[in-house]
Each structure stands twice: as structure tokens, then as C-alpha cells.
Amino acid sequence: MTTSSTPNILSSPSLGDNASTPHENNTSTFSKKLLIAIPFLSLLLFVIIDSQTSHHVQTAFQSLLAWISAHLVAGIFALITVYILATVAFLPGSILTLGSGFVYGKAFGLGSGVALASGVVFVGACCGAIISFLLGRYLLREWVGERLVKRYPMFMALDEALKQQGFQIFLLLRLSPIVPFNAINYIGGVTAISLKDYTRALIGILPGTVLYCFIGASAGSLSESQDGVNGPATVAIIGKAAMGNHRIYCHFRFC
User: What is the model's pLDDT at position 49?
Assistant: First the structure.
């Protein structure tokens, strides 16, 4: 006696049960992005309000730098971590850069101190910039591609230029001290520049980092180092650097 084996249709899952519709996928992706965007926007709003009112962030940075001066080795890792968070959260990194130059300059001398402070700040800034780039690409790249790049020829041409010559363009942007560091990190993420070219171009922030650390190391006190970036000598250096980068860009673009 033989029994025929027939498939149990009721117990076997159909293909439609596991398949998700495009609408469901879009909703899930939007929800994930929203979970990231809401805390980030809340933090950004707090930073903006705090910078105009109580200055809790600036006070916290000053306390951190005072702690680092008493814990030089552990302070290296603390400064890198805080600099990463500051870069992602749009916090002004100039206070940390100048302060690190002052702290390590006083501890190890002008030359060694500036070199150490520059290295620490550079590592923290690069890691924060890459994280910001990835956040911008995940949260906004699709929207920018659909709403701007595909609809407006100017944005399409700019996107294509960054795709083909992203390293050169972003290197010049990084060399310019008047381009906002935190903002350009996220802007890079929504363009077509590759992560490789974007990361390579971060070498362009090194001259400015060394300059800020040197100014901090040359100050007589921690508060003086934080005010040094607004001094006339520094403004003159930044102005000349910006003009030099403009000439380099014109030569690169039109020659």
C-alpha cells in the first residue's frame, strides 16, 4: 500500500507572506532614518540655543582641557573622543584645537607640543568628519538625488564634477580656512564624491590644524589661547590663505 505525498498547502508559507512591498520598505527605511535624525536635530538645536545663552558647551570644553592638563596621556584619548562627538554635533572645534595646543605646548615644549596636539586633533577631526559624511549620505543622499540632482541641471553638473574630481575639489575646500569644517562634512555626504576621495582630501585640514595648535601653544594662558584665533595676525594669515586657495582653484579649473 502506497501513500501519495502531497504538499501541505496550509502549513507551507507562501511567497507572498515573506515578501514586503516597496511601500513597506520605504516606510521602514524612513522610520530608521527618523530615529537617527530626531536625536541629532535635538542636539543641534541645543547647541545653537546654548551658544547664544548659557554657554554650557564652552564651559564643559574648558573643564575638559583643565582635566587634560593634569592627565596628559589619558587626555589624548579623551580629546580624540570628544573631538569626534563635537564634529558630528556641529560643536565649534576651535576651542579644543587651541586649548590642546596650549596644554601640550606647555607640557612638552613648543615644537613637540604642537606636533602632538596637531596629531591628536587631526585624528579626532578626521574620524568625526568621516562619521558625519556617512550620516549625511545615509540620511539625505537619496532625497538630494531625487529632488535636486535629477531635476536641476546645475546640481547634476556639480554632482558629476564631484564624482569625477572629488579629491581635488574637496582638497581645495579643506585647505580654505573660511569653509565651515562641520558643514562641509555633511555636504560631502549628500554628493557623489566617493568615500575614498573624501577621506584622502582630509589631509587638507592639517595645515590649519597645525596653525591653530601653534597659536594655542604660543598663548600665555588657556583663556588667551581661546581668544587668539580672533587676533589680527591670525585673521591676516587666514585671509592670505583663502586668497591663495582661490588662485589655486582658478588655475586648476581654467588652465
Answer: 81
pLDDT, one tens digit per residue, over 122-157 is: 999 999 999 999 988 888 777 666 666 666 677 778
Residue with cell 573622543: 81
Q: Write the CB contacts of 194 (distance below 8 Å, at least 6 apart in sequence).
A: 163, 166
**Is there a contact between 223 and 190 (Cβ–Cβ < 8 Å)?**
no
**CA–CA dist 247, 253 (Å, integer):** 10
Query: What pLDDT shows up at residue 192?
Result: 87
Query: What gap in Å lies between CA 121 and CA 131, rounded to an integer?
Result: 15
* CA max distance for the chain: 102
d(CA 190, CA 183): 11
- Vertex 105: Cα angle to 179 and 91 (nearest 5): 35
DSSP class of 192: S
The neighbour count for residue 233, using CB atoms within 10 Å, is 9
Say if residue 206 is exposed, middle or buried (CB neighbours under 10 Å; 0-12, 13-18, 19+).
middle
pLDDT tens readout for residues 174-216: 998 788 898 899 889 888 899 999 999 999 999 999 999 999 9
